[in-house]
Structure formats: structure tokens, C-alpha cells
Amino acid sequence: MEILYKVHNNLYVNLTNKCPCACTFCLRQTMDRVGESGSLWLEREPTLREVTAAFDDYDMDRFGEVVFCGFGEPTEALPVLLPAADYVKSTFGKKIRINTNGMGNLIWNRDITPEFEGRIDTVSISLNTPNAERYHGLVRSRFGDCSFEAMLDFAKKCTEHVPRVVMTTVETTITRAEEEECCRICEKIGAEYRIRPWEN
Predict the structure, then answer these.
(1) What is the pTM of this model?
(2) d(CA 82, CA 70)
(3) Pair 16, 43: CB distance under 8 Å
(4) What H or E segment, with its residue span, contains residue 78?
(5) Rounded CA separation 182/116 (Å)
(6) Neighbours of 172 (CB within 10 A)
């Protein structure tokens, strides 16, 4: 199974293929790999021991960050994610980032953000659009209409426990006016706003 894979100068961790969303733009619809990875479709979810052992195959001095982001929503695998992050920090001293759709509190039906404190350096959340109605059409969350506000609330709660919270949209997918609205949303939350380049 492809548990770890390289993208640019970071090492990514593929913990799960579970996701509460079926985004219209998801890479999983058109490909099975990212960057230098092999197939990111997992036979099963890896154990903590398998995840930590996978790091033995890499020269960790080559990487800037370890990023929990694979072919699924990483917070779906929270019981493995958190101790794996602890292992990476204590063993390699690397900064930890989670790339997420912001549904973690809905997935676990509780506020998981306090568990990020001291473990996670950056949380990057897909904002996608400033419009709640369009958001539902894009991400098709199994949680339904509450998803947009829950994602914003998750981001706000992350700012209380994580040094850096980033909210992202993809360039060319929304208008300049919508990007300005996204910027205002992020300012209100206390998060950074980043417009990501479109990647085929």
C-alpha cells in the first residue's frame, strides 16, 4: 500500500480512502495517484505501526513538512493520525500539516480541534467558495446543509489550537469578487487565505 508519497519537497501521509464528501472536482474521479506516488487506493487502512514503519524508507532530512493528505479525508483516521503526528515530531522534528475538508467535527460528532494543540502546526481547509448553496453543490457532503457552516466553525476553532490555519480556493474556479468575499471570511475567522493553482 502507498502510505507515504512525495509531492515537491514534502512527504504526504495517505491514511484512509474514506471521505464524507463527493466533490465534483476531486482528483479521485480521474486518477489514482498524485506527484511521484503509486496508486493511492488503499487495500485497507494502515495501522499506526505500519505508518511509523513506512518512514524508515525515507531520508527525512529531505522534507520540509509532513502532510496528512491522501485519497481520503485524513480526520476520518484520527486515532492513527494523532499518534503518527506525535511520532513524526518526536523522531524527526518535522512540522505537521493537515489538509482537510473541515468536516472533522461532524465526522466525530465532537470538537476534535483541542487534540491538535502541540501536535499540528498548520491546518489547511478547503473553503472552495464563499457561497453556502454553491458549496453544497460542489462538495456534496453526506452531512447536508449544515456542512458549510460546520466547516467555517471548524476553521475558527482550529485558530484557538493551531499556530497556522489556512483556507483555500482554487484559481480560475471562482470570480475575483468571490475571492474577495473569501478573503473577508478568512479575516473574520482569523485564518490566512490562499488561492491555490489549478492542477490537472
Answers:
(1) 0.94
(2) 15
(3) no
(4) helix 78-92
(5) 24
(6) 9
